[in-house]
Every structure is written in C-alpha cells, then in structure tokens.
Design a protein that fits this description.
It is built from 15 helices and eight strands. By secondary structure, the chain is an alpha+beta fold. It has three domains: 76 residues, Integrase, DNA-binding domain (Double Stranded RNA Binding Domain); 81 residues; 145 residues, hpI Integrase, Chain A, CATH 1.10.443. The strands form two sheets. Strands 1-2-3-4-5 form a five-stranded mixed β-sheet, covered by helices on one side. Strands 6-7-8 form a three-stranded antiparallel β-sheet, with no helix packed on it.
Length: 403
C-alpha cells in the first residue's frame, strides 16, 4: 500500500489481522508499519532488506518522523550505516542500562516503578538517540504531542522532570559535558487546583462498603467450612473470631485518620507504633521528604491497630501480603470497595480527605503541614480554601474599622 504519510493518513489507518506496511509516496523508504494490535511505528528502509525503527506513531508526529527518515537516508547515501554506533556519544539506552538504572534502583524508593516509567516514556521510543540529542526543541515537540493526546500538564511535567534528573546525573558523572535540557522550563500549572475528598455521605458509603465486603467474605468462609466439615476435612480459620478479615479495612481506616501515604503504610513496622503514647512514627527512609515524622493516633486509629495486632501473626511489617512480603499494590480490593457510587477517588485522596477534614475542623495549616510531612507550606496551602471563615473574618475587620 502506498499513500502520503501525514496526520490524515494516521487517523484513517486501521489494524488488520496481519501486519502491513504503508509506504510514503513522496519519500522512498519512509514507511508506517501497522500491527494487528493497533500499534503503529515509523520505519525507514535505508537499503534493500535493511530497516531501522524511527519511533512510535503518537509519540512522534509524521513531520518529525519524516525528518528522521531524511537524516537516516542521507547518512546511508554517504555510506554511513544508520545502525552503527553514533559518534555523538552515549545513547539513552546505553546510559539507562549501564549507569542510571543500577544507581536508581539502589537510591530511589520508587525503584523499578520509576525506571519502568522512564523506559515507557523515553527509552522505548528514543533509546537509540544520543543523550545530547535531547534538545529543548525535541522535547518541546514531544511535550506538545503528549498534551494533544490528552495528557495533563502535571503528568507531562513529571515525565520531563524525570528525564532532566537523569540527564543531570549524566553530567555529574562526566558522561556528557553539559545538560542538554538546562534551559527547558516546565509548563506552569495550577498546583492549588481542586482537592478531592469525601463528602460525609461518601465517607459513610465507603465505610459501609468496607464492612459489607468483610461480611460477605465471612459468610463465604462459613459456607466453605460447612462444606469441609460435612466431608471430614480440616476447617479453615474462623473469620468471625477476628475484627477484620484481612488488611484492607484497617489500611483504609488508618489512612483516613493519619493521612500517611500508601507507600508509608506498606513499609510501616510494628516498632513504629507506640501504643502507650498513641503515636505513629514514619521513618525518614520510607517518607517522601526523607525526614522522620510523628503522627498522634486518634482513638479510632489506635483501636484499629490494637485489633489488627491481636489477629496478625508475628511479623515486622504491620501489613504484609500472603507471602509475608511488603505490598506493592492493593488496587483490586480498593477498586471493588469504591464500586459505582464513589467516582474519581484514588487511594492517595484518602490523604487529601484527612487534611481537608482537619482544616474544616479549624486546625491551623502549619499543624496540618507537620502531620502531612510537607517540607514547606506551598503544598499545604491547597487546603486553605476549606477554611473560608479566616478570610471572611479578615475582610470583615475593614468594616469594623470604618464603623
């Protein structure tokens, strides 16, 4: 199939049950490959039987891919093998595999998750590019395309910040002479945007959903034990003797009453719980800020931990999976509890819910900041609008002064 490769063609192309190519009518060797999965890639055939991937459709625009194809074909015409190592220096793939990945896995709490994200955004589509080729112009075009694909400014900013941080290490380690994105600025965004927290009705729904889930699991266990008993088999643990059936409800209640992050809950150890002083310690090694903080436990949070402690086996971690290891996600159970009634609410929003309730109860913002572990007031100020009476009292003083 032959056609002019452009935005119109990209929008029209549909996957088939077999992979097929579309060759550009203007630039010989410039191709779009359409896979049965629906994924499409720009390809350049620079010699008979020899091709090189340019990038994925949707990440690169047709115009960007065409420019890359022209450069590849130009090199090939001069006898330069496009697949040979570039003289421009270390490629992103080489840098990630040989230098950044080992360091990142050792020194960053996000570990494999962070590396996977960088690979997905940059290494997979641009791994053969040299580090110094990541110019502000190139990344700005990538950013524009991401925004057109309905990615939020905040998401794109985080992606670019991760790339810039990686390149900063390349400079520090002497792998490149200068930071190619030094002058690139992140886009301005409204960081004090709407905070998602639960209304009183939604909190009741969430709490009841967690209880109903446990009631259902207990009933299923009772039914199964009856089946086992009738057949003379060994019975499983009777869940009715416990306050909780598993980790999920105590995790939710603890998060709602302490505002600790999901990763902090996953890493929480029993040695961090002071039952006598009703105090929870978040170690700096597991905190986003890197600083240790102490959170008082209210009566509900304290009771939750006491009940959970009674029914858990001896283990360092407060919450652990069935293999005794640290959790890495609880998405399945959390999604089921939210159901259809609570919309657009993430686990992290339990933290917002905690902070919002404090502010609405009249707690000053600096105390909220300390409880949340924010390093400065900037992040905490997003909750300021939830205590409008302070601003109302301030402007009312003008009237009192005039009177």
């Amino acid at each position: 199939m032959r056609a002019l490769i452009g935005n119109r063609l990209v929008e029209k192309l549909k996957p088939s049950n077999k992979q097929y190519d579309v060759r550009d009518t203007k630039l010989s060797g410039f191709i779009i490959r359409v896979n049965p999965t629906g994924k499409m890639f720009y390809v350049c055939q620079f010699k008979r039987g020899r091709r090189i991937n340019i990038g994925r459709v949707g990440v690169l625009t047709p115009a960007q891919a065409r420019d890359k194809a022209l450069a590849i074909l130009g090199d090939a015409a001069q006898g330069i093998d496009p697949k040979a190592p570039k003289k421009t220096g270390l490629t992103l793939q080489e840098f990630m595999d040989q230098h950044y990945k080992p360091w990142f896995l050792q020194h960053r709490k996000s570990g494999k998750k962070g590396i996977d994200h960088i690979n997905r955004c940059f290494t997979k589509p641009f791994g053969d590019m040299a580090l110094i080729e990541f110019t502000p112009s190139f990344v700005d075009q990538w950013r524009t395309q991401r925004l057109k694909n309905s990615k939020s400014i905040e998401t794109v900013n985080r992606d670019i910040a991760m790339l810039k941080a990686a390149l900063s290490k390349a400079v520090l380690w002497g792998l490149i002479d200068r930071h190619p994105l030094e002058k690139l600025r992140l886009l301005k965004s409204d960081r004090s945007g709407k905070v998602r927290f639960l209304s009183s009705d939604e909190e009741t729904i969430l709490r009841n959903a967690a209880i109903n889930r446990e009631t259902r699991i207990k009933a299923e266990r009772d039914s199964h034990n009856k089946w086992l008993k009738d057949r003379g088999h060994e019975l499983r643990d009777d869940l009715n003797q416990h306050v909780f059936v598993d980790h999920l409800r105590p995790m939710i209640l603890l998060s709602m009453n302490t505002g600790i992050r999901r990763g902090e809950i996953f890493s929480l150890k029993w040695e961090n719980v002071d039952f006598e002083r009703a105090l929870l310690t978040i170690e700096g090694a597991y905190a986003k800020s890197g600083k240790t903080r102490h959170i008082p436990l209210n009566s509900e949070a304290l009771q939750v931990l006491k009940d959970w402690r009674k029914q858990t086996k001896s283990h360092d971690l407060v919450f652990h999976n069935k293999d005794g290891e640290r959790f890495d996600n609880i998405k399945k159970g959390w999604t089921a509890i939210l159901g259809e009634e609570i919309k657009n609410f993430r686990w992290h929003d339990l933290r917002h819910h905690f902070a919002s309730r404090l502010v609405m109860a009249g707690v000053d913002l600096n105390t909220v900041r300390e409880l949340l572990g924010h390093s400065d007031m900037a992040m905490t100020l997003r909750y300021a609008h939830l205590a409008p009476e302070h601003k109302a009292n301030a402007v009312e003083k003008l009237v009192q002064k005039i009177n």
